[in-house]
Design brief:
α3 packs across α4 and α4 packs across α5. The relative contact order is 0.16. The radius of gyration is 26 Å and the shape is elongated. It has a single domain, classed as 60s Ribosomal Protein L30, Chain: A (2-Layer Sandwich), CATH 3.30.1330. It is an alpha+beta fold. Strands 1-4-2-3 form a 4-stranded mixed beta sheet. 52% of the residues lie in helices and 13% in strands.
Length: 177
């Protein structure tokens, strides 16, 4: 009986040692990081807003954000059809004004990021003006890295923060500023 108890005790200790060793081995297995829900939400929102018609855009006054490549001020190729729609809406609705806000990720100095955000917003304004929109109806602002959408510092998080946001308004500039 004692031998049986001793063997049972030894087996249980060995089993416990194996199970704890298995947990330590699992710690080395890389697991995918959980994706920030803000990134997912922003992507879904932008996809829906990119595909809206000009009439819907003028009615809802909601516009998607344009995301940028790292350290780039050139609008991405996918933005041009959207910007053409914005220009058409503004040209057919003279009471609308547009606020264009440039944002960056956390990489780089504060001064550089303010310049980069302003340059991105200015590039959007320049394109809209080339499409016949009166430059006085567009205001640009740079927030640099001060207003991130997500604090996720992964490549997806930084890409989400590198953006230009648009806001239509029907108020005059004197009423806003």
């Amino acid at each position: 009986m004692k031998l049986r108890t001793v063997l049972l005790f030894i087996c249980s200790v060995a089993l416990f040692a194996c199970s704890s060793a298995q947990k330590e081995e699992d710690a080395d297995i890389p697991r995918p990081a959980k994706r920030d829900p803000i990134i997912e939400e922003q992507a879904k929102k932008n996809q829906k807003l990119y595909n809206q018609s000009e009439a819907r855009m003028a009615k809802t006054l909601r516009l998607p954000a344009i995301t940028y490549e790292f350290d780039s001020i050139r609008p991405p190729d996918y933005a041009y059809p959207f910007l053409d729609k914005v220009a058409n809406v503004m040209n057919s609705h003279p009471s609308l004004h547009l606020i264009v806000e440039g944002h960056t990720d956390v990489l780089g100095s504060k001064e550089y990021n303010y310049w980069l955000g302003a340059s991105r917003a200015a590039a959007m304004k320049a394109y809209l003006v080339s499409r016949g929109v009166n430059a006085e109806r567009i205001r640009i602002h740079s927030h640099g890295k001060d207003r991130p959408l997500t604090l996720d510092n992964s490549s997806d998080g930084r890409r989400t923060n590198r953006r230009v946001e648009f806001s239509f308004t029907t108020r005059t500039w004197n009423a806003i500023y």
